[in-house]
From TrEMBL:
Record's GO cellular component terms: endosome
Family in the record: Belongs to the COMM domain-containing protein 1 family.
GO BP annotations, alphabetical order: copper ion homeostasis; negative regulation of protein localization to cell surface; negative regulation of sodium ion transmembrane transport; positive regulation of protein ubiquitination; regulation of proteasomal ubiquitin-dependent protein catabolic process
Domain of life of the source: Eukaryota
Gene name in the database record: Commd1_0
A Pfam family assignment: COMM_domain
Protein name: COMM domain-containing protein 1
Amino acid sequence: STESLNVIFELEVFLTAQTKKSGGITAEQAAVIAKFWKNHRVKVHESLVSRSCWDNVLRNISWRVDLKSQHRHLQQINTTPVAIVEMELGKNGQ
């Protein structure tokens, strides 16, 4: 995706700058860091997200709007729409 390409580009720019700083990292170290990030970026992201959620998390949400359209007696028809929302919560990491 474009977003992941931007992240990789930004990483390479950052690492290149670090190699040019006095006391910075070597080109070999930058290559190792870049390779690690490219291979483990998703796992690192998932780990950080799981560590930053302390409560229940939203697993799924569904909704609908109900409106009664027929009834035996016309005056008993309730024309007020009713919204029904169903949310599935779960513990973080489960």
